[in-house]
């Protein structure tokens, strides 16, 4: 199987599905991307009066007009955001998000508690946390692609840790996670694995903040990058069926056993880590950018 740039959208469907599973996102792209930019007004400039005529050539100027300072408004909260903050780790992330991107946090508060597609409660701390991560991904996620190597790579390290925990808990849930399927079991998993979710959320926010500051532009992955990725997957024992399933982001036909597919997903993430740095960062950056558009 030869990978070309035409495979970009298919290749990263797998990675997008992984993060979608983490955040319980629906990859049907039923919502539009939300991008809010912080805006500031212009400060009025000082007015200078013309020189006064004789007897003395004196220049008179008025003091600079300084607009009254308004204390920064505290981040908005409501009963639901307070409920999310009942979990200390969630509160830490909530407060960092609100302080870093006040406009996006305001939007997150506005949409909290909307009904879930799976019919499960949407007002629990875990459900509210996942919904908040969705808002961050849609509004600022693309900035993570412009982060430096360390914070960008940390996002994928935390994703792999979560996938490993799913693998050891429930192979079927692991496969649902790989393919971005809406799994009722994931919300229960989130409630018992909060430290993993918080670590991933923190890494994502770190990458977004770093990307906003660094603005590193990276070229798209090359055909050679994809050819190397496929070769390394094959060398690690993955067959054509597993590779195609991961790249297509859907269950193969004929089906592959859950434990085999779950293990293939772990190999896939590990191989990405082993790529040469330039190729790895190009793939990571494109993956994050695509995820932000879903």
Number of helical stretches of at least 4 residues: 13
Q: Spell the H/E element sequence.
A: HHHHHHHHHHHHH
- What would you report as the Rg, rounded to the nearest angstrom? 24 Å
User: What's the mean pLDDT score?
Assistant: 79
- Report the structural category: mainly alpha
Low-confidence stretches: 1-55, 57-71
Counted up, domains total 1
Note the beta-strand portion.
under 5%
Identify the quaternary structure here: single chain
The 3D shape can be described as globular
Helical fraction: 55-70%
User: How many strands?
Assistant: 0
Account of the protein in words:
The chain has 294 residues and is an all-alpha fold. The chain has one domain (5-26, 73-292). The chain has 13 helices and no strands. The radius of gyration is 24 Å and the shape is globular. It starts with 7 loop residues before the first helix and ends with a helix. 38% of the residues are buried.
Q: Key features?
A:
294 residues, mainly alpha, 0% strand, globular
